[in-house]
Design goal:
The complex is a heterodimer of chains A (about 120) and B (about 110). Chain A is an all-beta fold. Helix content of chain A is about 0%, strand content about 50%. In chain B, strands 2, 4, 5, 9, 10 and 11 form a six-stranded mixed beta sheet that branches. The chains are: A mainly beta (about 120), B mainly beta (about 110). At the A-B interface, strand 4, strand 5, strand 9 and strand 10 of A face strand 4, strand 5, strand 9 and strand 10 of B.
Chain lengths: ~120, ~110
């Protein structure tokens, strides 16, 4: 158990809908990262938050957005869903961004299926 | 652009048959190289961080090594429970983002 929690575990929804994925980082970790994993693309970085502020963006679609709340949990919002958005979505957290160790610990993921 | 290439894509071993997985990388200023293990439908599980060329880390039957261009994950006398996908990732220095850039993984199957 990494200490990172994600809900829900599974999500099935229709095209055009909007969903929210939730993540709670390990206790004390200030950085939260979101990744998408599909069969053909592997693990792709979406976005990073540090202590409530957006720190970096990857190849995140404009239909996707995220935020980190004062209690450090984070939510990833996916809207106008398309079939191609079906994937595993992982949240990760890390303790520090300026001092080793830098490793990120991953949650169990949310499997999103768009029908 | 930072890139990670892992080989082979898949590897089948007999129990006890040692082997190595390769991770080649190009990155502008390596901050760290990470190895993860991922079981089907689960989140990646952290194994090792390597920071500089020449560094080695060990855990049970696994040993990770790092050079300036690649990393190896050596598996000694593997057991069926070592079957999983092994992911390599790099983190670049230089500030701004601590994102990980992942390879596509090596799927390891260990037969009893």
């Amino acid at each position: 158990d990494s200490g990172v929690t994600q809900t829900p575990k599974h999500l099935i929804t229709a095209t055009g809908q909007r969903v929210t994925l939730r993540c709670s980082p390990r206790s004390g970790d200030l950085s939260v990262y979101w990744y998408q994993q599909s069969l053909d693309q592997g693990l792709q970085f979406l976005i990073q938050y540090y202590n409530g502020e957006e720190r970096a963006k990857g190849n995140i679609l404009e239909r996707f957005s995220a935020q980190q709340f004062p209690d450090l949990h984070s939510e990833l919002n996916l809207s106008s869903l398309e079939l191609g958005d079906s994937a595993l979505y992982f949240c990760a957290s890390s303790a520090s961004t300026v001092r080793a160790p830098y490793e990120q610990y991953f949650g169990p993921g949310t499997r999103l299926t768009v029908t | 652009e930072d890139q990670v290439t892992q080989s082979p894509e898949a590897l089948r071993l007999q129990e006890g048959e040692s082997s190595s997985l390769n991770c080649s990388y190009t990155v502008s200023g390596l901050r760290g190289l990470f190895w993860y293990r991922q079981d089907p439908g689960k989140g990646p599980e952290f194994l090792f961080t390597l920071y500089s060329a020449g560094e080695e880390k060990e855990k049970e039957r696994l040993k990770a090594t790092l050079t300036k261009k690649e990393s190896f994950l050596h598996i000694t006398a593997p057991k069926p429970e070592d079957s999983a996908t092994y992911l390599c990732a790099v983190q670049a220095g230089g500030g701004g983002s601590e994102k990980l850039v992942f390879g596509k993984g090596t799927k390891l199957t260990v037969n009893p």
